[in-house]
Design goal:
This protein has helices at about 15-30, 35-40, 45-60, 85-95, 120-135, 205-210, 225-235, 250-255, and strands spanning about 30, 65, 70-75, 140-145, 150-160, 165-175, 180-185, 185-190, 210-215, 240-245. The protein is of the alpha+beta class and about 280 residues long. It has three domains: about 15-95, Orthogonal Bundle (Arc Repressor Mutant, subunit A), CATH 1.10.10; about 120-205; about 210-255, no CATH class. Strands 7-6-5-4-8 form a five-stranded antiparallel beta sheet, covered by helices on one side. Strands 1-3-2 form a three-stranded antiparallel beta sheet. Strands 9-10 form a two-stranded antiparallel ribbon. Strand 6 and strand 7 form a beta hairpin. The radius of gyration is 26 Å and the shape is extended. The chain starts with 12 loop residues before the first helix and ends in a 20-residue tail after the last helix.
């Protein structure tokens, strides 16, 4: 089904929000009543009726009135005009939750994998963020998995990055005389940036400033059905090739997230954990 959202809409924000609520409920739950709008927005039944009529004018054929149940139901040919629907939206609004049995005895039909929270200390985040904004030197106490050390070091942060799981700060490391990624949740503490500690003139961070286009292709060892399954899964062209633009400094994180082996580098995803026997 083709989703065709209206790109230009001039209604006032409160009206637009009510119309989107009508659309979301009819699309995901399958029906909407005037009482939904009165309960959520506190409008009168007359206003709710006016909103439903307005939506029918914007999206003819999207809703069908069920006289017996006294509700508007989304038709099988309905398309969304006011927003791009996502499954996350459906689960958040109308999902049954996840992870435990409901009071009615029904087993929840939505579940998530809950990864351990990697939450840097708020004071550390504040110092790092200010240092990035003001281009200041910063002294941090950092726990390194790679070098198996913990010590204070001076860095000059210039950018923040998220690899899909955790935050990094991209910074010049004065000890190693090079740009490095520092995982923020491994920073135990940071000293308050001193305005007088203006960062020295540094070389250009080529790895960060340079973008490259990765061309990925489907593993030729897969059969025709597997190949076509991945083309459908990722929305790839018939060639099965995929072009992704990424900063060179973020390349390894992108490939690791996609579970792609990069023959151009000896770096492998670290095995930080093992399944205990």
């Amino acid at each position: 089904m083709t989703i065709e959202p209206i790109r230009e809409f001039t209604e006032a924000w409160p009206v637009l929000e009510r119309l989107k609520t009508i659309e979301r409920a009819a699309w995901w739950r399958g029906w909407v009543r005037r009482s939904d709008l009165t309960a959520i927005f506190g409008v009168s039944l007359a206003q709710a009726s006016s909103d439903l009529q307005r939506y029918l004018e914007l999206n003819p054929g999207a809703l069908v009135y069920n006289l017996n149940l006294k509700r508007y139901e989304g038709s099988s040919k309905m398309v969304c005009r006011l927003h791009d629907p996502t499954l996350e939206e459906a689960v958040g609004l109308f999902g049954s939750g996840g992870g435990s049995e409901q009071g009615s005895g029904e087993i929840a039909r939505v579940e998530h994998i809950h990864l351990p929270v990697r939450r840097p200390a708020a004071a550390v985040l504040r110092c790092v963020f200010l240092a990035v904004r003001e281009r200041l030197r910063l002294r941090i106490k950092y726990w390194s998995v790679h070098s198996d050390t913990v010590k204070w070091r001076w860095i000059v942060p210039h950018a923040l990055a998220h690899d899909g799981l955790r935050w990094h700060v991209r910074a010049w490391c004065e000890e190693s005389s090079g740009f490095r990624d520092f995982v923020l949740s491994r920073v135990e503490s940071a000293e308050w940036p001193d305005p007088s500690a203006i960062s020295p003139r540094l070389p250009r961070d080529e790895e960060w400033e340079t973008y490259e286009t990765l061309v990925l292709e489907i593993n030729p060892k897969l059969g025709d059905t597997g190949r076509r399954a991945l083309i459908r899964d990722y929305g790839l062209p018939a060639t099965g090739q995929w072009e992704l633009k990424v900063r060179r400094a973020m390349r390894q994180y992108l490939l690791a997230a996609l579970r792609v082996h990069d023959p151009g580098t000896p770096i492998q995803a670290p095995a930080h954990f093992l399944v205990a026997p």
